[in-house]
């Protein structure tokens, strides 16, 4: 998880190289403001996407995802964040570790947890970087569990009963 005065890019840059080397060597950079200006976006090769993001996902989902993916804007991941205890620290955080993720390896994920411990950690075995494709049922179960931890009755009056009824109905079918 990103810490105060850290760029989101810094989270995984150790696996790539420095930001400068990455920006100089990447053949997939986009220059929306002209070649003489800093790059504005990044586009992954479709084969890279399959290996990095969807290495455990069904082929139908990969096909849908690769045609739907758009370039990634660089500004949001290259700017340092200013996080405060009053804001960022006031919300409970949970980390869902995907154990077969090739975009952020389990070692990097564990480092993120060590450096900014969340309130809880959940693990998805067999999940890639996009567990909503590779392990949707596992992700759904974890999100429901987090919702219960977050006191749904206080957050969503009347919703707790609905979730329990939906779970019971799903178990019966």
Automatic annotation (TrEMBL):
GO terms for biological process: jasmonic acid metabolic process; salicylic acid metabolic process. GO terms for molecular function: methyl indole-3-acetate esterase activity; methyl jasmonate esterase activity; methyl salicylate esterase activity. Transmembrane segments: none annotated. PANTHER family: METHYLESTERASE 14, CHLOROPLASTIC-RELATED (PTHR10992:SF785), METHYLESTERASE FAMILY MEMBER (PTHR10992). This is AB hydrolase-1 domain-containing protein. It comes from Aegilops tauschii subsp. strangulata (Goatgrass). The lineage of its organism: Eukaryota, Viridiplantae, Streptophyta, Embryophyta, Tracheophyta.
């Amino acid at each position: 998880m990103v810490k105060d005065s850290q760029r989101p890019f810094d989270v995984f840059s150790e696996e790539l190289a420095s930001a400068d080397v990455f920006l100089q060597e990447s053949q997939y950079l986009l220059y929306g403001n002209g070649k003489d200006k800093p790059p504005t976006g990044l586009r992954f090769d479709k084969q890279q996407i399959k290996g990095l993001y969807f290495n455990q996902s069904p082929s139908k989902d990969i096909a849908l995802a690769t045609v739907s993916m758009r370039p990634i804007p660089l500004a949001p991941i290259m700017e340092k964040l200013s996080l405060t205890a009053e804001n960022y620290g006031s919300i409970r955080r949970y980390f869902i570790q995907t154990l077969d993720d090739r975009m952020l390896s389990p070692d990097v994920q564990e480092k993120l947890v060590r450096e900014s411990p969340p309130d809880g950690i959940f693990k998805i075995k067999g999940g890639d970087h996009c567990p909503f494709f590779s392990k949707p049922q596992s992700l759904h179960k974890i999100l429901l569990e987090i919702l219960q931890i977050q006191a749904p009755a206080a957050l969503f009056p009347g919703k707790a009963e609905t979730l329990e009824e939906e779970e019971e109905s799903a178990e019966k079918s």
